[in-house]
Amino acid sequence: MSATIAKPGRNVELEEWHLRVDLAAAFRLAVERDWHEAVANHFSLAVSEDGKRFLMNPRWRHFSRVRASDLLLLDAEDETTMQRPDAPDPSAWSIHGAIHAAHPQARCVLHVHSPYATAVACLADPTILPIDQNCARFYNRVAFDMSYGGIANDVEEGRRIAATLGDKRVLMMANHGVLVVGRTVAEAYDELYYFERSCRTMVLAMSTGRPLNVLPHDVAERTAQEWDAYPEQETAHFAEMKRLLDIKDPSYAD
Questions:
Q1: CB 124: neighbour CB atoms within 10 A?
Q2: Residue 207 burial class via C-beta count within 10 angstroms: exposed 0-12, middle 13-18, buried 19 and up
Q3: Domain that holds residue 120
Q4: pTM for this entry
């Protein structure tokens, strides 16, 4: 018999509950870092081996109020999802449903309109130049969707976005924002954290009007590979952020 933990009105398998708590923490941390936008944007996390059953935030719930027990449990292959009384936001279902259906390795999907990533996404060329070691982390490791056509609220647009992401962990969405994926919430959160900081560095450096000192290819590529060699940092980073949340407001884990 699988272990369970009691929560108000339900019994949730222990493993799924831990996933719920991690994803809920990511919402609260997004507020701490000013990555949220009103009641828009969405995070999701696969709970099945094939990635098609996943958790996602309820429609139009502010990130600062999301709790583990609030998260919707959805199935990417359920064509009746948008007929549910608690149906998710159409754009959330379009994008996240398509990614979870197509990319089982993309366990966690975080999509935001964070300030600096969105600013860079508005440039004619939104490439993250390797001008410091954080920016070099993303050297040749970002997919670009340069075909913004309005709010992504239909299935075909979601499939197009999923195909554009491919095997990358970051999708820069022109005139829109950014989407990152990871094998865990910790991995995706860490990726988003450093991507937003890299975009901030880009914006600040470009704002000086002076020439950028771009790292040569071999140094940038080696630096990116060195980042890949530190997966334990992602786990430690997220664990520390959760500890800070526990001190400030542990209600995310309710």
A1: 6
A2: exposed
A3: 4-253
A4: 0.93
